[in-house]
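Appendix B, record 7
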Amino acid sequence: MSNKIRLGILGGGGDSLIGVLHRVASSMYDSYHLVGGVFNPNQKDNLEFAEKIGIPTNRVYKDFDTLIAEETKLPEDERMQVISILTPNFLHFPMAKKLLENGFNVICEKPMTTTYEEAKILKNILDRSEVVFAVTYTYTGYPMIRQMKEMIASGVIGRIQKIDAQYYQGWINPIIHDEEKRANTWRLDPEKSGISCCIGDIGTHAFDMVEYVTGMEVSEILADLNYVYSNNKMDVDGTVLLRFSEFVKGIIRTSQIATGEENNFTVSIYGDKGGLKWEQENPNYLYHLTESEPLKVLKPGHAYNSALSLDGTKLPPGHPEGIFDSMGNIYRGVAKAVRKENYHPGEFPTMNDGVRGMNFIEKVVDSHQKGNVWIKIED
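Structure tokens (predicted):
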């Protein structure tokens, strides 16, 4: 009998990049066995996709409700243990709610829901259960981000005094300037995407990241968003000022209309003794800056890194690791939690991160709509 965790997936069929990312990540560390799911809304496509990726079709269900009904009929040692939600945003909440109510462990793409109120409902359900819930803020899985977190916690850069996160993409540029295209893109449809496009999609990554690496929580924000066209309902660019405390402040700069940019996510944390910088497009380098010594470059796999960083490193030094490895580390952390093994709290983003992410998105939009004013982030 295999001791692998039985995994189901919702969405991610066809040529979905996020689907490939999750399937590859779940196969790392030999912890999961993909047994079925609902990959496409059309059952013919669903079954063809299952055959293409080489899994049996007997647990490839025609829709989500059928999956719940059939899986809960199975003995506990046969039913899916973890189900990953990779669908468009508007389906995250109803799917996650029903999965939690039926005792499934959940891995959910971000943003976790489309509203803060929905996120709080999920949190209340989770608090009454014994299951595991993870939100895939994927970049927290990079070994050098985990190293940054541990170095900051141990006081290497001293007292934090400046935080700067930038996430620039240009992918929406060809869409936003074509009225027909932007009217038919789900990312720009509030009914499917929620109240925010840019902040909801990538700004929430930056928000979670700065809280993850610093160990601090943002207390207030002030936002200025750009919609480019008056008839476009969703932001595609934005700048958010952050207040952690009276003397610790920062900024998040996000854009999906930064022409020519691919996935330019950078994080810089400055303390009174030094600074740390990381770039997603060069994720194996962590830059340590001080005023008294030359620039230091830390790389994964070396003994000088923390246990949390080394635990998420699969290859010897000099062998690049990337986004698949980062997501794989999150899946690994969830596997430890499901098996009730010891794990570091930084191994995967939790429901709390998802709730704070939705709180952040709504407060950013609220700040912008009220004329760019400071808004408090609830605890």
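Remarks on this record: The first strand starts at residue 5 and ends at 10. The chain has two domains: 5-138, 142-315+350-369.
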